[in-house]
Amino acid sequence: MHINLRGAAEQFVSMVGVDDEVKGGSVSFEVLVDGKKVADSGPMKSGDAPKRLQADLHGAKRLLLLVGDCDDGNSYDHADWAGAVLVLTPGAASRPQTTTATVDVTPPPAIVQEESPEPAIHGPRVIGSTPGRALLFLIPATGEKPLHFVAKNLPEGLTLDSETGIITGSLKQPGLTVVGIEVKNARGNANRKLTIVGGKHKLASRRRWVGTRGTVGRARSAMPRSEPRPTPWSKAAWRRTDSSLSTSTTAGKASAMPLARFRPTRNSPT
Q1: Residue where one domain finishes, among candidates 43, 78, 113
Q2: pLDDT tens for each residue of 9-67
Q3: Could you tell me the residue range of the domain that residue 153 belongs to?
Q4: N or C: the chain end with fewer CB closer than 10 Å?
Q5: How many domains does the chain have?
Q6: Which residues pair with 218 in a beta bridge?
Q7: Both 98 and 148 in a single domain?
Q8: Burial of 44 by CB count in 10 Å (0-12 exposed, 13-18 middle, 19+ buried)?
Q9: In terms of domains, do 45 and 73 share one?
Q10: How far apart are CA 207 and CA 116, in angstroms?
Q11: Does any domain span residue 153?
Q12: In sequence order, what DSSP letters do the residues of 16-34 get, joined into one string?
């Protein structure tokens, strides 16, 4: 990923690693500033603890984020830049521009609005992490710089950088903690509650759309059924019900015919 900084950034920081959704894969992460490598994770495998990469961007023009496959192919290489943060220069006239080889995600000038000088807090009100895993979260705030950040009742293991608003560390215990966030500047202050959830939580059972003969788009739970689903009888599948008749079901209709008509020949398998 290429980011045209336009001289408007101060710092880049991110946790990196292989996503827990895969059991396998090996990747490497590199951060280049104006063509010079400034941070390198080295080879990382599935299950490795995440690492923190950061770079000083004062006066820099271009930032390049690279992911390598460690020369063993890209199978299961689900690489994460987790909680990546780009700290901008206060009062910068232009904004960084992020692109890939073919995609420009810079917002059109019409939707880039001037920020209010009064402090304000934005972003999510609930975040979470697994105890023992690294956490990185930037409190999204706007207002006249410099801003000063305060967090009350942070869970054990987490710390706040009062100048950048970045919360880092790892949760020591599972549970739910409500943290009081405050951002101050010369124009006033803003407050918000941030809920931090620690622990592994299972998602509710997923639902899928199943199409069957005669029904389209019927929603059916993915939970296991208490009884096995009956298998529709084909036209040639017959079941004996008495001494002279067998029954089949074709398109939901039952029919009966003499067994003699379907008696196997001498050479056919029984």
Answers
A1: 113
A2: 999 999 999 998 888 889 999 999 999 999 999 999 988 989 999 999 999 999 999 99
A3: 114-201
A4: C
A5: 2
A6: 210
A7: no
A8: buried
A9: yes
A10: 44
A11: yes
A12: EEE-TT-S--EEEEEEEET
Contact by Cβ (8 Å): 1, 100? yes
Measured CA to CA, the distance from residue 264 to residue 270 in angstroms comes to: 7
Residues 196 and 118 reside in one and the same domain: yes
Which of 65, 6, 3, 62 has its CA nearest to residue 34?
62
Strand partners, 27: 44
Pairing of strands 188-198, 126-129: parallel
What is the distance between the alpha carbons of residues 177 and 113, in angstroms, rounded to a whole number?
A: 34
Neighbours of 86 (CB within 10 A): 19
Classify residue 242 by its DSSP letter: S
Q: Is the same domain home to 37 and 48?
A: yes
Among 201, 220, 242, the domain boundary falls at 201
Q: Which residue carries 């080889």 as its tokens? A: 101
Q: Determine contact, residues 22/118, Cβ cutoff 8 Å.
A: no
Its pTM surpasses 0.70: no
CB-based contact 15:29 (threshold 8 Å) = no
